[in-house]
Predict the structure.
Amino acid sequence: MILIAVAIILLCKVYGKTCFDPNTDCVLTTALLLAGCSSSSPLIPNIFLISLYYQSYPPVFNPAQVDPGVTTAIANIIGQARLEVRVGYFGICINDDGGSFLCSNNASALAEQVSVDQDPLNLIWVASTFKDNIVFPYLIIVAIIFAFFTFVILATFPGWHEEYNDQDSVRDVKPFPSRPVSQAALALIFISAVFTLVSVLWQHTASVAASTIAQDLGNGSVKSGVGTSAIVLGWFGFALLIVVTIGLLVMILSIRLLDDLIDPES
């Protein structure tokens, strides 16, 4: 997905067009979101949905706890474990020494790289269950495809060109884009925005819920957090799609208004 976004930007540069438009930026941000934790490349492990890690802290006590003393048993089991696990859409990253992350889409392969003392509560397995059973990336993939097709349609819109008038003088003219083509682009980008909204809401709600439950179960010994970068990328991509949708809608309505002013009987 990142290669697709980069290819689009390169094509824009080749043909002399600006690439800092909302549609292209949306493809790039959502592609980065999907690429989180898919490799050990710099910055990629920092794009994650949730993180789970061992850390001792004062446990939270509540009257609803039947056995508050279980926190002591959990702390004894964990010992000196310091493993951190991060989950993305298509991969999991682990770090057991505070250094670089080791990432893979195969949780079993990652589990073979650590000992029992490093992951006594099977956080790698918990992360794998979250990725396989809760995370659903395909809506956002469809949204990226629709946004890409919208970009292709927008590239077919006529640009400025020179024409000669009756006095043989040159003037710059930019024809209106075809109404059916404009409406097709609007429909595609609107569907893309809806799919992105559903996917980002799903991601945000599921991540917060899973993070809270995991930390409560490991009360006093396991901490968890939601990836801020993934949330920002998701909502920023949705905002860009809304900008494109509103822009296309305003353009179509403006062209229709101009047509009505020029030819009221049409």
Remarks:
- DSSP finds eight helices and seven strands in the chain.
- The radius of gyration is 25 Å.
- Residues 1-20 have pLDDT under 50 and may be disordered.
- The first helix runs from residue 2 to 14.
